[in-house]
Design a protein that fits this description.
With about 230 residues, this protein is of the alpha/beta class. The protein is built from eight helices and twelve strands. Helix 2 (about 35-40) runs parallel beside helix 3 and helix 6 (about 150-165) packs across helix 8. It binds calcium ion. The site of calcium ion has 5 residues, from loops. Calcium ion binds near residues 8, 9 and 53.
Length: about 230
């Protein structure tokens, strides 16, 4: 999952980026409101974190314009103010949630997880395909009840695949949701990581393969009869 942070306080922005990357998210940061809006409209983010007071353009205005452009990704607004009318204004501009500074990183993380679950409520906190399970709270991945150890990027990739089961995903789409701007993405990066994942979640197990190559296009994940 790929997150955009728009926050002009470099210390806060960079600390959030580091913290979220440790939790396997791909994170981009913009320090100015107009740059933030540009990035939000031109990249395919799964969630936006917007500071309210920003140079260039206010967080609420970014929020409004993002919604006007029919982008429905979850938005969390950060603010120093804590008056009820500010909260209401933030939510009315299209934000899904609101955090008052200073906040605990754990609280932000919990809210991000809750918002990313929202469109697929029925999935709960554990994502599943065949005998493979991924627990989004404990980060435990298992198949046939055997624990599988994944690197942070492998986990991020598997999480994205599990959320998009039975859909054909192009390599570009996968890159856009799993890697950030600054990542060194080579032409074969997706293949390399798919190879790592196959060796960990498919090859050692007798159940059906879950990772399928769609020739000339990308991948499909899940128990598939015809690819
Ligand atoms: Ca600010």
């Amino acid at each position: 999952m790929r997150i955009l942070i728009v926050e002009d306080e470099h210390k806060i922005a960079n600390a959030l980026k580091r913290g979220l990357e440790q939790e396997s998210y791909a994170v981009d940061v913009e320090y100015d409101g107009e740059d933030g809006l540009h990035a939000a409209l031109n990249e395919d983010y799964d969630l936006l974190i917007l500071d309210r007071m920003l140079p260039g353009m206010e967080g609420m205005e970014i929020c409004r314009q993002v919604r006007q452009n029919n982008l429905h990704c979850p938005i969390i607004m950060l603010t120093a103010k804590d008056q009820i009318k500010d909260r209401v204004a933030g939510l009315n501009s299209g934000a899904d949630d609101y955090l008052i500074k200073p906040f605990a990183f754990e609280e932000l993380l919990a809210r991000i997880k809750a918002l990313l679950r929202r469109p697929q409520d029925s999935l709960g906190t554990v994502l599943k395909s065949d005998s493979l399970t991924l627990d989004t709270v404990s980060y435990e991945v298992k198949r046939n009840n055997k624990i599988i150890n994944l690197s942070s990027k492998e986990y991020a990739l598997l999480y994205y695949l599990l959320r998009n089961q039975d859909r054909v995903l192009s390599k570009d789409t996968i890159i856009a949701h799993v890697w950030d701007f600054d990542a060194d993405v080579l032409p074969n990066t997706v293949e390399v990581y798919m190879g790592y994942l196959r060796n960990k979640i498919d090859k050692p197990f007798s159940g059906p393969d879950l990772i399928h190559t769609v020739r000339g296009f990308g991948y499909k994940f899940g128990v598939v009869k015809n690819v």
